[in-house]
Write a structure and sequence with these properties.
There is one protein chain. This protein has 590 residues and is of the alpha/beta class. The chain has 3 domains: 269 residues, ANL, N-terminal domain (Rossmann fold, 3-Layer(aba) Sandwich), CATH 3.40.50; 134 residues, Rossmann fold, CATH 3.40.50.980; 124 residues, 2-Layer Sandwich (GMP Synthetase, Chain A, domain 3). Helix content is 31%, strand content 23%. The protein has 16 helices and 28 strands. Strands 1, 18, 19, 21, 22 and 23 form a 6-stranded antiparallel sheet that branches. It has a 5-stranded parallel sheet with strand order 5-4-6-7-8, sandwiched between helices. Strands 13-14-15-16-17 form a 5-stranded mixed sheet. Strand 4, helix 3 and strand 5 form a beta-alpha-beta unit. Helix 2 packs across helix 6, helix 4 packs across helix 5 and helix 7 crosses helix 8. The longest helix is centred in the last third of the chain and has 24 residues. InterPro entries: AMP-bd_C, AMP-bd_C_sf, AMP-dep_synth/lig_dom, ANL_N_sf. Pfam families: AMP-binding (PF00501), AMP-binding_C (PF13193). This is Amp dependent CoA ligase.
């Protein structure tokens, strides 16, 4: 549970936003009540006839009343058909969809919570998330149905608690569809009335259980309150002055009636809060793309005249280097935000050469801070290169140094954040919560410097988590899986830099006796391939050992048995470089 922040003293240096005070945040509204049923002084006026959501593939649109009505219809079904209770959990297992927000709003109206899973998960990975959150119902897209059904049945969910988000191609499927449920419910003689939260209740009422690896270990579920989501949307609204019509057009971001793109995964907190919820509040039309395909992405920008892009660094790499880019008209793009991982100054320069008139800025945040901590300032066309931006209103930051003191401007330390949007903690993991959530503050695990100009630079990660294409990958998860392989005696997984993915997993493996026999027979490459396949067969694509596999005599460890990953990171980079050079030689000979 979050407690009040400690009072700053003269011995503790704190950094605060220079972009205004924290806005007024309602503490008695649920997320759908805030977005659909009420107004706020910071909310800009949406142009008449401007759709809220647009489906990229079909062009179908949903406006405010359609979303509001359907959310009530779903809430009614959850309450009267499935008897879902307050604080119980509904799971979503789907690629991006215009129905994603409707499911969230419907579930939230009855006081239940959402857990959203990566649609590329294996049945075992989805089962883990369903078990951890004790989900009572599963909303699944037809493309993920087989995995969803297997996981649901494994945790004891009956087929009548599996809901297809869209109709499946196979009409014989025994599962009810979302449209059927909503249509039936809207005919119900007893209309659903959602409960008004008590003053302050939104601060503790859980809206989402978002998956995060935290500072170390296997994925954890982060409890995010209704208040956290509303707070972060309003903090960003104040930072970007979305309500201020006096902001010059060339500086204005997220103009009401313009089109923003939702291609980042909606199950991820960046794609959910920063993109969908924040853009809806800004009065933008959110174009929903189910799955990223680069040329299709470019075609959608051109077709729908997209004004705002939310991306991760690998997408910028493609925009700058892929030959298809020049075939599309991207002149509608006015602003571009990059998050989830740092963007180098070199790559930023290439992007500005490609799109010289855009407002380009970076952002930084965590699931545990739900979400954004800093963004590039509005008064700059291009944020400071290499910077993650500046603190948004309502944020207080400290830099905790190894000696326990707090650093000032220009000094380096672990970034510690206090924000009204901070999450409540990890569920079923009191120890991890105690280590990360301290007296209302969140220890980010990231080493940072905040300079005299208020720019925040993330310089290193204390935590062991890798960021692969913006997704968190816990080495411990992959190591635990690999240790079940008969070819592996011991293993250490580290991240290695990758131009496209930011970094990718690389495994140092101590071969078992069985594997060693094969290696002695000259089958070392085969053994490496078998080990990589063992991960590929069980884990999501971004968790695969794309960096490579290297044999090692022993994993370096300290006296207490903790792996010394830092000693292997440089060796991993050298091994990765050798693999890439050998691959280039092979290509040259072809």
């Amino acid at each position: 549970m979050r407690s009040e922040a400690p009072t700053a003293t003269s011995s503790v240096h704190e950094f605060r936003s220079v972009h205004g005070e924290c806005p007024e945040i309602p503490d008695d509204l649920s997320i759908p009540q805030f977005f659909l049923d009420t107004t706020h002084p910071l909310r800009p006026t949406r142009p008449a006839g401007s759709p809220w959501l647009i489906d990229d593939q079909s062009g179908k649109t949903l406006d405010h009343e359609q979303i509001r009505s359907r959310s009530y219809g779903l809430a009614q079904a959850l309450k009267f058909r499935w008897h879902l209770e307050e604080d119980e959990v509904a799971a979503i297992f789907s690629p991006n969809s215009i129905y994603y927000p409707i499911i969230c709003f419907g579930v939230h109206r009855i006081g239940a919570a959402i857990t959203a899973a990566n649609p590329t998960f294996s049945p075992e990975e989805l089962q883990h998330q369903l078990e951890a959150t004790k989900a009572k119902i599963l909303f699944v897209h037809p493309s993920a149905l087989q995995t969803g059904v297997a996981a649901a049945r494994a945790v004891g969910l009956s087929d009548d608690r599996i809901v297809l988000i869209e109709p499946a191609a196979n009409a014989k499927q025994p599962f009810v569809t979302l449209d059927e449920v909503i249509s039936e419910s809207l005919q119900h003689p007893k209309p659903f009335v959602d409960r008004q939260l008590r003053p302050g209740e939104a601060k503790t009422k859980v809206a989402f259980y978002n998956s995060s690896s935290g500072t170390t270990g296997k994925p954890k579920s982060v409890a995010v309150s209704h208040y956290s989501v509303v707070a972060n949307v309003l903090q960003k609204a104040e930072m970007n002055r979305v309500y201020d019509t006096t902001v010059p057009p060339e500086r204005r971001r997220f103009a009401p009636g313009s089109v923003s793109i939702s291609v980042l995964p909606q199950f991820h907190i960046y794609g959910c809060i920063v993109v969908v919820f924040f853009q809806l509040f800004c009065g933008c039309s959110v174009l929903v793309i189910p799955k990223f395909s680069f040329t299709s992405f470019l075609g959608s920008i051109q077709k729908y005249r997209v004004a705002t892009l939310f991306v991760v660094p690998p997408m910028i790499v493609l925009m700058c280097k892929h030959p298809a880019t020049k075939n599309y008209d991207l002149s509608s793009v006015r602003s571009l935000m990059v998050g989830a991982a740092p963007t180098s100054a070199e790559l930023s320069g290439q992007l500005m050469a490609l799109l010289p008139n855009i407002n380009f800025f970076q952002g930084y945040g965590l699931t545990e801070t739900a979400t954004t901590v800093c963004m590039g300032p509005l008064n700059k066309q291009v944020g400071t290169l290499g910077s993650a931006g500046q603190l948004i209103p309502g944020i207080r930051a400290r830099l905790l140094k190894p000696d326990g003191t707090y650093g000032g401007p220009g000094e380096q330390g672990e970034l510690v954040i206090y924000s009204p949007s901070n999450a409540l903690g990890y569920i079923n993991n009191a120890q991890a919560t105690k280590e990360t959530f301290i007296d209302g503050w969140v220890r980010t695990g990231d080493e940072a410097i905040i300079d005299a100009n208020n720019d925040v630079f993330i310089v290193d990660r204390i935590k062991e988590i890798m960021k692969v294409r913006g997704f968190q990958v816990a080495p411990a998860e992959l190591e635990g899986h690999l240790l079940n392989n008969a070819l592996v005696s011991d293993v250490c997984v580290v991240g290695v830099p990758d131009d496209y993915s930011g970094e990718v997993p690389f495994a140092f493996v101590v071969p078992s006796a069985e594997a060693d026999e094969k290696i002695q027979r000259g089958e070392g490459k085969l053994v490496k391939a078998q080990i990589a396949k063992y991960v590929a067969d069980a884990k999501a694509p971004y968790k695969q050992l794309a960096g490579g596999v290297e044999f090692i005599d022993a994993i370096p460890k300290n006296p207490s048995g903790k792996m010394l990953r830092r000693l292997l990171r440089d060796r991993a980079k050298e091994a990765r470089q050798k693999i890439l050079e050998e691959a280039n030689i092979v290509k040259a000979k072809m």
